[in-house]
Design goal:
By secondary structure, this protein is mainly alpha-helical. The chain has two domains: about 200 residues, Rossmann fold (3-Layer(aba) Sandwich), CATH 3.40.50; about 90 residues, Tyrosyl-Transfer RNA Synthetase (Orthogonal Bundle). About 55% of the residues lie in helices and about 5% in strands. The structure holds tryptophanyl-5'AMP (TYM).
Length: about 325
Amino acid sequence: MDIVVSGIRSTGNLHLGNYFGAIRNFVKMQEENPCYFFIADYHSLTTHPTPADLHSSVKTVLVEFLACGLDPEKATLYVQSDVPEVAELYLLLNMNAYVGELERCTSFKEKIRTHPNNVNAALLTYPTLMAADIIIHKAHKVPVGKDQEQHLEMTRTFASRFNRMYNVDYFPEPVAYNFGEDLVKIPGLDGGQKMSKSDNENSAIFLADSPEVIRKKVMKAVTDAGPTEPNQPKPLAIENIFQFLKIFSSTDTYTHFNDLYNRCEIRYGDLKKQLAEDIIVFNNPLREKIEALKNDTDYLGKVARMGAEKARESAAKTIREVREIIGFRSM
Ligand code: TYM
């Protein structure tokens, strides 16, 4: 049976990109497979949160995991830092990760460009920590969005390098997974390529956003003056808005606005009003569950402890075996 592992950084509220890129698949996969889903709080330290912010972000993601339908009885839900074996495997993998290959990683280059004052060593070795997260449970499938594809490629490199180096067939080579379909990339509302909260808050709709906030964000979404000739291809920002319609609205609504666009009769205000209402219909049940769960500290604590125990059991076994393979033996 294929083992599934995936994680989400704890940098605050989850957005629709996280949901459609990853969490929706977590919920489906927990029905069939042994799954390990975790909150990547070690990873979030690259941006130096305060202790209070770190703690509240981890709690937020746990609440939102549960609100989305992750079931702690079916999947192992845990906090990354509750499993320190991950940090040991990260150290060991770093011995065979080359600076050149880490420097070539797109996400690292992007961070250098966007945050030139905080190019820390953990950003460079981000892919080895991610690989440790995945192979610590000897995973086969990793449900993620399109932006994580290269990290998965590097995970395979590190796993197969370990196997080759020690002449073992120990770690499987895990693949990014979306039920055989292309990995998903939800665009931003700011005309950007990807919904993301770190770059621009206006690009993202959060699962916890109220209807008023959703209306405001959608009405502010980037559009243009409209087409001047019929049946023209859509510029990126407009393509993005239509992608949202495809996800959240009915086929009739999509066709209606697409026809208006092709006839140069589109009024983006009308489109956005309809889109906002359709997103609200999707989001409201999630937001209500978030509200209901967020103060249930006892339950959240119980879920986290149960997950930590199960995840540690699997991680400790891997570390024991890896130490043996590498040659750490008692005197
Ligand atoms: P993170 O926290 O940025 O995103 C979590 C998940 O959400 C997906 N995602 C998106 N999918 C589609 N469209 C979007 N606009 C969008 N934005 C985010 C991401 O692809 C991801 O699946 N490094 C990871 C966290 C991580 C991890 C791991 C994931 C740490 N260790 C091990 C898998 C396995 C990250 O920063 O994701």
